[in-house]
Structures are given as C-alpha cells and as structure tokens.
Design brief:
By secondary structure, this protein is mainly alpha-helical. The chain has one domain. Helix content is about 75%, strand content about 0%. The protein is globular.
Length: about 290
C-alpha cells in the first residue's frame, strides 16, 4: 500500500475502534432497530451535506440505485441491526472477535468472484495470524460466565458474512461512483428501509432520553457510519476487499489501547502479544518484496 492508503487505513481503524462500545451504550436504552435507524439517518444527513458542500454529483441511472438499494440492506441495515441486537446479550469484546472473521470470509468470496484479489498462501497466513492476535488481545475479557448467548454470537457472525459479501459485491459494482456518494448512498437507502420497518418491529417506537445515548448515536452516525463508509469504499477500490477488511483487526486493538490511555486500564501481556500479531498480519498480507 502507498502512504496515503496507510493513512486512510489507520484513520478508519481509529474511527471504528470505539463503535462496539458506543453500540453497547446506546442499546441499553433503545431497541436495536431504532438505534440503527437513528444512526443511519445521522450518517445519511452528514454524507448528503458533504456532497452538497463539495458539489459532488449523484448518480441518476436506475442500475446504480438498484445496486445501492441492495447495499443499503446488506452492508448497512442487516449487519448493523444484527450486531446491535447481538450486543444486548454478548460482551463488546466477544463481538469484536467475531467481527474479525470478516477478512477470512472475504478472502474466500473474493477469490471466486474477483480477478484481482486472489487467495494466496501469504494472504491466508497473514489473516490467520491477525485473527489469532485478536483472540489473544481480548482473551482476558472472555469469561466463561454464561453472559454471552449463542444467538447473540451467531448474529454477529451472520453480520460478518453480510459485510464480506457486500464488500466483494461493492467492489464489482460501484467503481464508477464518486467517492463521497459511495459512502452516503447506502446510508440513504438504509434509512428508507429502516424507518419503513421500525414502526412494525418496535412498537411503540422509543426515542432515547439520556444525553449519553444521543452522543453515542451521533458519534455512530457521523463518524462511525458516514466518514467510515467513505473511507471504507475509498480503500475498497484502491487496495481491494481482502486488504480493506483487515481493518477489522484494528477495531479491538484500538479499543484496548483507548482503555489503557484514557481509562487507565492495566497493561497486560495480551496487549503486547496481540498487537504484535495483528501488526505482523497486516505486514504479511501487504508484503511485496518486488516493489
């Protein structure tokens, strides 16, 4: 990757690192569907304002909007709801580990559907090393206390499958779309879908009353959705699906580091070894001695 790609990759990892924590906070007061509905509305509004400010043209052809209608459901609405629902019964650390399966699913799907992102021994080794690093990093938070339900874990795994499939599909179908619109369009279509079903699945609709919940929702919408998806799609079309999804290994690493820095949590050997394995995996996947 070029220096600009590394910058965006790290920025995306930092932005998304706290997402599981904010979801855990918000879902204590509002249902998962309302949470996602408000999150995607904030994200869509942010993206639309950005395109207006920068005068970015929106696509007008039917085929592109059909693509983004699909992506709004498969890459935003469904996985966001599944993760939010899952975190009602599982810890954020467990959700982070399960979400780190996205690159493993992506490399398989990309190998059989894309010509420029083939499976290699080097990539497989790097992905497995990184996944091992995530498990080591969060192992101290995994307690066999029965708090993490099977259904909650299954929901996050299914969400990871949707992320992987949507990433490969988007790489094949959205290359012609301007960068800002790539991030805003699926949030816009997801907003329409979510608010069409929220009155049906969560009656009565309960809006948050706690300030911290609104902070969580705004953060998740503006940064964790709008900015993050713009960065995600940029990387997707620059470095390919497998390398882009490696950023999911950064999420738990960033969360643990933030806990050490701001919450004065304990420095452990799991942090050092897990971080080392995660960084090693990113280097291995991107290593190209011929360049």
């Amino acid at each position: 990757m070029k220096p600009k790609h590394w910058f965006v990759f790290i920025l995306l990892g930092v932005v998304w690192s706290a997402s599981f924590l904010w979801i855990k906070i918000a879902v204590q007061e509002v249902g998962p569907f309302t949470l996602v509905g408000l999150r995607v509305v904030f994200g869509a509004l942010t993206g639309i304002l950005a395109t207006i400010f920068l005068r970015t043209p929106w696509p007008r052809d039917r085929a592109t909007w059909i693509t983004y209608s699909i992506l709004g459901v498969t890459s935003v609405a469904i996985p966001f709801v599944l993760i939010s629902w899952g975190e009602k019964t599982i810890d954020s650390a467990v959700a982070s580990i399960l979400n780190a399966s996205v690159p493993l699913f992506t490399i398989i799907l990309a190998h059989y559907t894309l010509r420029d992102d083939r499976m290699t021994a080097q990539k497989i080794l790097g992905l497995l090393v990184g996944f091992g690093g995530v498990v080591v990093l969060l192992s101290k938070d995994l307690q066999p206390d029965g708090h993490n339900s099977i259904l909650g874990q299954a929901a996050v795994i299914i969400a990871s499958l949707f992320y992987a499939g949507s990433t490969v599909f988007a790489r094949a179908k959205t290359e012609h779309v301007p960068g800002l619109v790539r991030g805003a369009a699926p949030l816009l279509t997801a907003s329409v879908v979510m608010w069409a079903i929220i009155p049906v699945v969560e009656k009565p609709v309960h809006l948050p009353s706690l300030p911290i919940t609104w902070v969580a929702l705004v953060w998740l919408g503006v940064l964790g959705s709008s900015l993050a998806l713009i960065l995600w799609y940029y990387l997707l079309h620059e470095i390919g699906p497998t390398r882009t999804t490696l950023v999911s290994y950064i999420f738990p690493l960033g969360g643990v580091i933030l806990g050490v820095v701001f919450l004065r949590e304990e420095l452990t050997w799991q942090l050092f070894l897990g971080a080392l394995l995660i960084l090693a995996s990113i280097v291995v996947v991107n290593w190209n001695p011929r360049k």
